[in-house]
Every structure is written in structure tokens, then in C-alpha cells.
Amino acid sequence: MADTGEDDGTRTGNRVDIDGDATGPVIAGNYNVVVDAQHGSTVTVLMDGRRPRPRRRDRIRLLPRRQGTPLGRDADLAAIAAALHAGESVQLWGPPGVGKSALLRYAARTLDAGGDGVVFLDAACREPEDLAQDIFEACHSTGGYAPSRGELPQLMEGVEATVYVDNADYTAEQLRTVMDAAPDALFVFAGREEVLQGTDGRAHRVEGVTRDAAAELLTRELGGPGDPDLVTALWEAAAGTPLLLLRAAAVARLDPAAGLPRPGAVRELLHPLFDRLDEPSLRALHLLGTFRDAELDPEHIGALSGTPDAAALCAGLAGLGLAEETELGYRVADGVVAALRERQGLRPYALERLCGYFADWAARPETPAAQVAGHARALEVLAELAEQSGRADLAVRVVRAASPALARSLRFGVWGRLLDQGLPAAQRAGDRQAEAYFTHERGVRAVLTGNRVLAAVLLAEAGILWRQLGDTQGADAAANAQQYVPQEPGAGAGSPDGGSSDGPGDGLTNPPEGGASDLGSSDLSSSGTDPGPLQDPTAGTAPSTPSPEPAPPSETGASLPADPGPAAPDVPTVPSDPGMSGGGMPVDPGPPLGSASLPPGAADLGGAVVTGGAPVAGVSAAVATALKVAAVIAALTIAVVAVQQSQDGSESRSATPVSGSTTMDAGFGDPTPEPEPEPEPEPTGLAGVWWSSEGGGIEFVEAGAGRYTARARDVCGDTITAEFSGGGDTYSATAPAYDMSSGSCGEVLGQVRTTITIGEDGDTASVTREMASTVREGVTCYTCTPFTLTRAS
Fold it and tell me: Which of 68, 149, 316, 465 gives a 20 to 30 Å CA spacing to 419?
């Protein structure tokens, strides 16, 4: 990592760079990974003595950009200094715009560093595990190495640095994850909510500035003192919030004849400021608003907005309280996006141009992996906008281009977020090659982060997809990676004696012979985030999985290619619907994507997984065995419902539906020959076979008195009978939701209620799911999305 925090406050490039060849292999824990952008990455276990030896830096000094002295913050600085002197970590908290970031940056530069030095980081939209890797690289020369979850605290032991973390809007548990990564460091966090309590440290609320400080701020911005009575009134109306006072001064500075605004308008100054901006400034601000909470390097802002000196222009926007300067570049200030969406006459940026620009940039060999990781939130927003605009093909293009660099950056959290976007986009776009690639990379990531059971499912699925495409190189890479996943219950990766290693996610329960048809139970995880990289496995490797024979494409597993339509014009067009979801600026999506037929997935009722379709033709016994062994968590990888316990709703990592992940037929047990069709009575209530909009079918048997049953195997491998009861058109059932964080059934964390409402025609029904009860706070169903049932004819 390059030390970019010189005393003059200047920075070159991104803040955290990876040492060594950015295009070469990287190492995570005991695994060597060669990233391949075409056929999927390969994984090998390091031989004894080949593990990197990170060297602690002689000088730990990663400072924030230099800025002016925040006004009226002497008492806050004294509180931070007192906490650090007492050996306590501290959290600064308060509403947006109150001045937390300015205070934190000034403290990082001026307070006694003590110990081994200072590290300043921005946690906005970052995973705690990625932030822990940032801290490690700030303190060590790493050579492209991510230590295992167990090794990281050992390597950081004795490093007595002070770590300042801005925008740390984490839960208490996530803050502990960051602090545990550097056990001897002291931390100063800044966030919106108070979460640091008790033995973890002390919380300090950041209030608005005093009246004298407000008067000094306005005097500094206006070049002279204002009317004392008006200054006092503005200070009171703004509750001392520096951002609002800065905007009030900006209005007067841009229009001296108008002077300071009325106190009653101090919270409604964004539109008056927009009216006073010149065209280049408004265009650049509109671009930043399009990317919502993501930060952009001025280089990209200039290229996309046509601004010659984007850095100076954005600095001017920051001085008006419209943008925020970050360590990477700029993002919009609080409240600006909503106000921009209300403004008439703004022509949206062409989505195809934005996606093409960043996809080309991320895929260039000379683009540093750390730069791509720094812009990961911007790439994520682009993929979201593409999906919302019906252009799944553009989402695939962005994620596919960025994935190799994100893997090389060793920021596995954000890599996983992008892959989770790319896979369903590829399925919707009918891009089978991208679907195979994303499935493969998700499997490799699962190996590296310790989720071995999930890795078994994904890599087996990737092997099938690669062979259906005729890509033997990709299939071989998936098969090679599978040898580091346990193929039998209790077999740990890299553990020749069959015992489990010390990495997370080793538990593996042998599923029933019938496969992965689950009804009446749900997957839960008691952790809000994926575990870190694997603990060191023992020497040696598990036997390699034989490569399956190439299989022809299955009719049930094939996706029809989509027609992307003609290229979008590279010019702004009329605004799209300003009420679009996602909170960003309207964009021009370009021509709509042609319709695509998605392969069948899994029907899910009450946490159930009911697979549909015939077995994939030509799949070898080795792959079928891998699928069977991993079927215990099939609900996590192919179900519609994945319930996860988390302290923060933004930490949703629900798995994405994966097609073709099982080899069962539409029934609930072993495949049997189809009986001859017999005349059926007129259907009533739920009785009969229904097909799900998510794929697959389920049969309800009338049990009398408004009760209907369906038999299946749950995620724990037990045969159960789920009973739906009710009357008229509405029936419901509840089922336990298990903690599946270890890869097998753990404790019951709650109950999921599934409600089926039959439509007026009697042949369609809507299905909704919700958490009926939980055993503790923080259990959330992230993917309880509604779907429909259609009665089989």
C-alpha cells in the first residue's frame, strides 16, 4: 500500500493500493487465486513455506485530506483526546451536516497520534471485513495478501495505531468486527446513530455549533460580518448545523443583492442554489446525483459531464454545501439528490453511455484494482439503475468488467455484492456465459470466505453450466476448485483425514436421498455478514473431484438469448419517470431489452424449496454427488426465501436464485415414472397441483375442515408435513426458521408465516411471506418477496 497521506494533504490516485503485480495471483488465507476474467478463477492451496510474510511498516501514516479548522469544536476535540488518553475507543454521532466528518478529519491530523501512527479511512458503503483489510494494508506491506479471519488479529497484535473511520454507519456487532481486526489499536468512529456502548468504548454526540461559531462561519464565508440579529435568527433556525449555515452564506455570496436568506427558508435553500449555478456546475452536480451516495474521481466527472477542470468545479460545489469532498473524489451532500429529482428540465445521462464508460475503464489492464474497488459503489448503483430500466444486459456488462479487478483488490465484501447483482441480471438477460461466470466466481469467493457448503453448490452448478456451453476450461477450473470443498459429511477442505478444519462453515449435514425439496423451514444466518477468509487448513488437499463429461444443454435449464436492441444514442434524452425506485436521478435507459425466458428455479412455500423440471441431462455421478451433499442448504442458494439475522437492514446478503441446482423432478421424493393421466374432479380450495411463478410445482392434499397438507423434506433433511389452514380464499401456515450460518441446521430463530390467497378465477393465487415471530431482535427476512401460483390444468 502506498503511503498517500503526506503532510501537505495531497494525494495521488486511490488511497489504498495493493503491492505487487495487479494482474498476477493473489493470496487469501492459505489459498492462491489466479483471477481469470473469461473462464473463472482457479484456486490452489499454498505449499508449506510459501505463505507470504507481511512486513509491518516502519511508519504508519495514512492521513485525511487537509482542510480548514472546524469552528467551535474545542470541547469536542477535548472529549476525543480524553477518551484516547484513557485507552478507550470513541464514536462521534449526530445527524447529517452537523460537522462530524470535519471534526474527525481535523482530529486525525492534530491530536497526538501516540503508539505506532494514524490511519484514516472512509467506511461509506463498505463492508466491515473490507475495512479490516484496509487497516491491515495500512499497517503492513502485504504483497497482495488477505490473511484469514483467525490470522488477521495475530498479525495486527501489538500495532498500537489510532484508526479514524468516517461514515461508520455500522451496527455494534459490525463495529466490533472492525475493532477485533486490530485488537491493540484505538478507534474513533463517526456515524449517524449511537451504537458504541459499554466496554466497547464511549459515544460522544456532536451537536450544532454555538452562536459565536455560527457568526464566525458566516463572516468567513461572506468576507465580512452580517446583521447580528439575522445571524442569530439563522443560527436558531438551522439549530447550529454548519451545512445549513454554509448554504445560507452561499446563496448570499452568489447573489449579493439578495443577501442572506430569511431564517424560515434556511432548510429550503437547495433550489435557490440550483438557480444560481452555471450550466457546467449544474451538469456536474446532476452527474453526482445520478450516482446517489457513491463517490466519483474528478477524472470521471470531467469525462462524463464534459467539464474541463472537474476538480476545481467540484471543489466549488463543496464550498456551496452541495457536494462533499472525499478521499477518492466527491459525492453529493445530504438532501441534494431528492431536490435534484424535483427539478424540471434536467436531461438525464444516457445509461448506456455511463455503463459503457465504466465497463471499459474497469476492464482496462492498466486500471489499478484498488481504483475499481474504490468506485465499487458507483458500479453497484449503475447496475441497479440498469436493472430498474429493464436493461439487464447493461448490468451484466458492468459487473462482468469489474469482477476480476474486485477479486484482485481482495475486497471480498464488495466483490460479493457485485456478483450478487450480476448473476440474476445474467439470468434475466439470457446471457448463459455470464451466468456460468458469475456462478463460478461466487463459488470461488465462498471458498475464500469460508462458506464451504455454499461453495459446493455453486461450483457444482458452475461446472454444469460451463459444460453446457462447451467451455472445458471453465468446467475444469470449477472442478479444480471443488477439491477444496468437503465432498463428504465432516470432511474439511485440505484435511486428508476427513476431519473438519478450523475454518468457518465446515459443518455439513448429509441430506436425504430424495434431494433438496424443502417445505416448512427457512434458512437463517445468525451473522449479518459473511465470515472472513478461511482459517489455515491443514497441509494437503482433499481428493480431486473427477471432471464430469460434457453435457448437452438441457431444455429445462436453458435460457433464450435476449435481443439487446440497437445501441442507445450517446446523448441526453427526455427524463424518465422521476418516481423511479432507488432514489437516484433519472437516466435514459436506451432501447428496452428483448424478452428472455428464464430457466426454472425453485418454488418456495413457507421456507420450502420445491424443485421443478427434469434432471440435467448428461450430468456425471460426481457432480450429482456434489449437488446432493450440498443440498442441505439448497434453500440458501436457490430458494426465494433466505432469512438472515442482522443488526443492519443494509447488510442483506440473501442468496440469488440459481437455476438448475438440483436434479429432482417436480415431486417431493425420488423420481418415479409418471402415471397415466386420470380424470380429475373440479378443483376446489387449495387441493391439487399448482405451478409457481418462481418455477417448480407443489401438490396440496385436502385434509378436511379447511386444511390442506403438502409433504416434503425440510432444510434439515427431515420429512415433514406442512399444513395450511383457513377458509374461503385465504390459507396460511407457519414454519420454523433455522440458523444456517454453519451450513447445517442450528437453533430456531423464529417462525415464518406463508399466506396463500386464491384469486377470483380460482386458478391463480398470490403468496406472501413474513416473519411471524422471532426469538430475538435483529432477525429479518430479506427475500420474503411475493409470488404467484397457477393451478395445473
Answer: 149
pTM confidence score = 0.66
**Rounded-to-integer distance, Cα 645 and Cα 119, Å:** 31
The span from the CA of 403 to the CA of 641, in Å, is 26
Look at residues 297, 494, 284, 280 and name the one whose alpha carbon lies nearest to residue 378: 297
CA–CA dist 247, 267 (Å, integer) = 9
- Percentage helix, strand, coil for the chain under 3-state DSSP, each rounded to 5: 35, 15, 50
Straight-line distance from the first to the last Cα atom of the chain, in angstroms, rounded to the nearest whole number: 63
Query: What b/e sequence results for 467-505 when a residue is b if at least 16 CB atoms lie within 10 Å of its CB, and e otherwise?
Result: bbbebeebbbbbbbbbbbbbbeeebbbbbeeeebbbbbb
Q: Decide the pairing of beta strands 688-692 and 787-791.
A: antiparallel
CA distance 344 to 321: 21
Q: Is the model's pLDDT at 564 over the cut of 60? A: no
User: Where are any strands of DSSP class E within 417-555?
Assistant: 522-524
Q: Three-state SS for 215? A: helix
Asked whether the beta carbons of 754 and 641 are under 8 A apart, the reply is no
pLDDT at 787: 77
**Residue in 734, 531, 525 with CA at minimum distance from that of residue 643:** 525
Confidence of residue 747 (pLDDT cuts 50, 70, 90): confident
Q: Which three cell numbers stand for residue 466?
A: 460451463
- Which of 428, 409, 410, 407 has its CA nearest to residue 419? 407
- Other C-beta atoms closer than 10 Å to the C-beta of 643 total 29
